[in-house]
Hints:
By secondary structure, this protein is α+β, with helices and mostly antiparallel strands. Helix content is 18%, strand content 39%. It has five domains: 17-312, Methylamine Dehydrogenase, Chain H, CATH 2.130.10.10; 320-624, Methylamine Dehydrogenase, Chain H (7 Propeller), CATH 2.130.10; 638-739, Immunoglobulins (Immunoglobulin-like, Sandwich), CATH 2.60.40; 743-845; 846-1012, Heat Shock Protein 90 (2-Layer Sandwich).
Amino acid sequence: MAFLVDTAWALDPHRLISQYAHTVWRVQDGFPRSPIAITQTSDGYIWIAAGTGLLRFDGVRMTPGPSQNSFPTNIGINAILGTRDGSLWMGTYTGLYRLKDRTWFRFPSHETGVQNIIADHADTVWITQYQGHEKGLLCQVTGNDLKCYDESGGTSVEALAEDSVGDIWFGCLMLCRWNRASMSYFMQEQMDHPTDYGVVGLATGSDGSVWVAMDGTGPGAGVGYLRDGQFVSYVAPGFDGTKIRATSLLMDSQQTLWIATGSEGLYHIHDGRADHYGSAQGLSGDVVASIFEDREGNLWIATDGGVDLFRDVPIVSFSSREGLHDNAGVVLAREDRSVWVGTGGALAIIQGGSTSLITEADGHPVQDVDALLEDHAGQVWLGIDRTVMTYQAGKFSRIKGLDGRPLENMGDILSFAEDIEGNIWAIAENPPTRVHHLLRIRDHRLQEDTEITARVPQSHFLAADPAGGMWIGTLDGKLFHYLSGLAKAVSAGQSSDVPVKVGSFYIDPTGVIWAATSIGLYRWERGALRVLDSRNGLPCSRLFAAIKDASGSMWLSGKCGYLRISADDVANWSAQPESQVRATMLGPLDGADPGYFSKRIQPGSVRSKDGRLWFIGYSTVQMIDPGHSYKNQIPPPVHVEGLIADGKSYSSSSPITLPPLTRDLEIDYTALSFVLPQRMAFRYMLDGRDTSWQDPGLRRQAFYNDLRPGYYRFRVIASNNDGVWNTTGASLAFHIAPAWYQTNWFRLAAALAALLLLAAIYRLRVRQIGRAMTARFDERLAERTRIARDLHDTFLQTIQGSKLVADDALDTATDYSRMRQAMKTLSEWLARATLEGRASLNSLRTSTTEVNDLAEALRRAIEECRTHSSMETALQVTGEVQPMHPVVRDEVYRIGYEAIRNACVHSHAKQLWVDLSYLKDLTLSVRDNGTGMDVALAEKGKAGHFGLLGMRERAARIAAKLTIKSSASEGTVIELVVPGGVIYSHPDSRRRKLRGIVRSLMEKLGFVSRQA
């Protein structure tokens, strides 16, 4: 029974079943064996009932139906139905069930088996029950209950239908009709001779007709229709209703009757013609259980071998299955709307949807039919078996030669043409010699026979010039004009790296010549040649035929399919040869089988009076109706079927929350168009992740493995085979829960901790910078203080002493010898001041000594001291000299220098001892035997002087220990101890030395060998 939604593209009723596109699914394709019924729900899914199970099909994938836990396992499905409210109804041996919103409901008031289900024009559901039910055979669904009629008992009901006025027809003891008020009974006379089972199929037409299929072997068995209340068997050419054992009937949306049989496959009846299709023609099985028409007009057939789908295609093919004989080579469209096809062994005539064959001509069997032409008088010219014949009023006639005898063995006739004077011209080829003759025929007699092989090599095609004469085309793409016995070369064709081969020759009503060639479409106008090929946008350049339709659009038969170029694009390209054209292509999925007969005889393409275009195909004759739109206008329903996250499946019917750390995500989606699923297109976008639509092609899954916690919404849209988009599409929302460390509270806490850490680092850095600046200021201040000490303790004192010498000299200016001695002293003091100044400058720039030798520096200080004093001095160095840090070494030197100078100037000592020790620590001792100093002076220094104070400050700066001991009887001892880790550049050198000493002792004692 048909799906109760208007179909936009139903099967063309004027075609044979073999001319529809046919798809078969068998057990090896995942389909059930011996399916019982097929239906479609309002969401677009196809449902298939088989035995005790339901399967759902989206055109690509077959999946089990929803769980049926609410009823027994072995329910035995008899019928299924989809209704506009989204319900799926199922009639079983145990009762009636409804699936809606993924929930099954069993009608509790119904306890017997359900045989049939239909929905009327108002979407009310009607069922029929098994025989003997006390409530009646026919029931109407009202809410969650049933209201039943016809309490007569009777037999089981195999058929149920609604007619054009809303009455319900079903089988009872006979044929019954319920008009919503009363019951009527028909076919009572037939029931006097009952069949075994009675009515098994019903179909009603929009014209009020009621078609009946009767089972059994009685007088009323077979397929027929109801007339005056009685059953009348239907008989048509190729169909005898009295001999057909049908299982069900279907009247499709084009009012074509389809008949399912129990052993003979499928029958199709329209306009008084019957057509048969069984397993020999490709049906999956000869036992047909049911027929169903979906919302796109496709026809589904359930057989004992699988499921078949028939759909319309833009291209209609005629081959041996449609009555042609052998391969077709030439096609002619006549004024009487018939189409003639020349084949090997017969002449086929297609008219009114039927094909007839002529196998004899002029009393002889037809072997080969070559070129065809209909002249201005409606007479058909044929090249048959190497001669020229005419056909008119059902009679063939041979052309006579100049001698009046019929012509024979003229060769293969390649092309015909009629000039403006009514002459018939033909090109004949002698196959063994390849010699071509140009023939002119008038009044059924040969008038001229000109051999043109030398003048027009490879001459093959003819077209009449509206201005007079004939156009001759060659197989290699050259064009000649023939007039009054002269052949003039007009075009040498297009130069090409590969040989050019012409497939057909065509002159349009404007006089422009077109030729389909192996390198593109040739266009000659006034001798100028232009070529349309892939550089202009053609999908392929190898062409077999070209012809214009009634609108001026150009149709091309090419290797890739049939191409249509609009009239505007043709005109634009004709004016601007470099311009692009847009070609609409019909390919193999549209039924295309392009090609040409090996002889390439004319014509290879024609336009019939009704505007349809006919082409010689590779193995068929193919017809395209440019005036008929085969566009599928129905946008496909789109569904998100589910989500799989890390191997776990989630239903799309409820909000989805995925666990934390979900990684691998697969989202399954589909769109439901069954015309050409191979040409559907999908686009999807994941809100929250994708920034634009993704184009997966035909793939019906989306994959993600990089999603962070959060809320997402997956959206998908799809288009059908003709690019009609469902822009609303479908969507699925889901949420990925965060792990504890992915929560907002954790992020907030981490952010606050980071801010606090940054603040602490900032404050620490500020303090470090402050301390560094303070240290730099302290260093500058210390350096200034040191310079001040140096200037005071040395340089300024020397200057002050020089001033005293000068003053003394001035007081005794009259004493020349004293003056001279004073000047000499002053010179020495000034020299000393110079040395002290240089020493101070040197201390600012480099180390005290150039050779890093502290002992040598101290020796110089002692020698400088002896220039001012006559005391005895001694310097003793203990230990191995170590490399020292230059800054610390200079501080030690300044302390030692100050101690030596103080002893020389202030101690009044007779002896001075300086000891320098390089051991673990550096020890410097300056000792004299002078008068000593006061204890308070040793502790604080002399007011206004910075000598002792500076020594203490220097010692503190280098972490050294400074000790000053003084007494009047023993003199003064100043000792400085500097830690080795402060002053030595390699503090572990002492350890290495000690290890060496220990090893040497062990070798001497014999504990370690020298070689070890």
